Amino acid sequence: MKMLLLIGLVFPTTVFAQVLPAKKLQTMFEKAAQNGLFNGNVMVVDQHKVVYNKAIGYADAAKTTPLTTDYRFHIGSIAKEFNAVAIMLLVDRGKLKLTDHVDQYLPELPQWSKKVTIKDLLGYTSGVPDVQWKNVKSDAENMANLIHTEKLDFEPGSQYAYNNNNVFLQRRIIERITGIPFQDFVQKELLIPNGITHAIIDPKETEPLVAHAFDDKGNTDSMEIPISGWTAVNLNDFYKWSQLLVNFKIISPESTRFLLIPYTPSRQSGLGFKGAMKDRKIINFEHDGTSRNYQALLVCNPEKGRTVILMTNNKQGNLYDLNTAIQNILDGKPFLQPKKQVMSLLQNEIENLHGNEITAYYQQLKKQHQDNYAFDAEASLNTLGYYLLNKKRTDDAIAVFLYNTQLFPKSGNVFDSLAEAYLAKEDHPNALKYYKLSVKLDPKNESAKSLIKKLENK
Hints:
Blueprint: H1 2-34, E1 40-46, E2 49-56, E3 73-74, H2 80-92, H3 118-123, H4 139-147, H5 164-178, H6 182-191, E4 200-201, E5 231-233, H7 235-246, H8 253-260, E6 273-278, E7 281-291, E8 294-301, E9 306-312, H9 319-330, H10 343-346, H11 356-369, H12 378-390, H13 394-407, H14 412-424, H15 428-441, H16 446-456
Antiparallel strand pairs: 1-2, 1-9, 3-5, 4-5, 6-7, 7-8, 8-9
Pfam families: Beta-lactamase
Keywords: Hydrolase, Signal, TPR repeat
GO molecular function: hydrolase activity
């Protein structure tokens, strides 16, 4: 009787431990939806079990059609995984080498194609200029532009520039090698054999069960994208895809490592960024994507059996804040309810402010709007810092990142961002200093470790 009583006491506790995160997640997402901060679909898996799987909001701007978990979403840059994995699948099959030059497969391109390797395309270090989005309406027009492109933006391998012509050329190379359209190759080799049955490539306006993206003013995005090859997925297929990658079911561990660890540290790779492997196991990878008002985030931690998938058709720029809250809930830690993005408050004035003026203005806004905006999240200033860094305002970015390290002195991520800004300035002593601080706070930061070795060897 005593043993039966003990079992009776233990079992409800276990069930309660499983139910509690789901309830907290539900409450958090309900508040986010009420505040206009999330419209989309979410899946949370922990210890290989689905903890939360929910459609929240509407599939259209008119808000007449409720979302269901069967709806498919554009996932922005995450869809680039399909061409990157396809390239490495062909490598594994001996159909090409990463050291092959682009002209071997696309001989109609100018002389610069003899210098660009497939490895450069995957690492965004090719120097090929970006797509001319304003005057390109088809793959044919984009190829015509490339044929008439006389020179690269920089020598291949010397710099990093994240742009979509790297992706476009990967897709065309896959077509030349296989003899079939890229979309057909994805269906035939990546989706159908692996039970991914609902994904759709380049969906049209009339396609059923595809969420339509819209802005806060109720304007609907066009489904037309100038260059083709974009795979839209629902939650179940997205999760299947992530598990195929982390379990090496499509490409080898060696090929996965190449795509996971950035060719250029602290930058994007074929599988996003912050990727880490130990021996032949993936420790972590994250990938985000944006396409107009679509936004998606995939976060995988195989050691914990944990995957977070967020897809929205009404971009609020807060998916990382939502993920941070989700991770804290799963870990039994206090969490912050996501708020509106601070960047929307800053944008009107930021072009006219510099250095300490920016942080002073930030402090002023914080006093006025703290209750409704995410001033308590490290991502707020980090987003601003990267905005400035991308604008080549390196000193202003350093001022912002430095201030963020004062606000979040225990975050390895903010020190990593500060180090990256110093590296962009070619201030190697400070870059080394802050990369080391980042690794001290976050020992899993493999990109920082790689950069420390390079900086110490200079």
